[in-house]
Amino acid sequence: MTNLIRLAIILLLLSLPAVAQDFFEASSSYWTKTNVALIAADATAKSVDMAFTMHNYGLPGFQEHDPLARPFVHSGPVIAGVAQGMLFATEIFTSYELHRHGHRKMEKIVLMVGIGGNTAGIATSTR
Description:
- It contains 5 helices and no strands.
- The termini are close together.
- The chain has one domain.
- By secondary structure, the chain is mostly helical.
- Helix 1 packs antiparallel against helix 2, helix 2 packs antiparallel against helix 4 and helix 4 packs antiparallel against helix 5.
């Protein structure tokens, strides 16, 4: 598990240079280096969080702290994976719609909040 945490941290840190690279670039395309890096980091954080959650689900005394995820986690890994995928798709759709309406900073904030939430989940799952 420790190697998995290290890998997740490395992948998240590798996305930072891409964010800094075109942060000030005024591009009309949604698929900039920044957004691709943020989407990849979000997918990585969600996958690692789900892996830890499903691993811990089998342990005695496990309790999911996220009230929105709790019903899905207790329904099994397939349902939890589908719910996580739907959340991921919703975040990307929200980010894209914000981009379409000219909210360039907000489109990135939506993805960063997703990354932060799942990173917090990873941190609480490894205690």
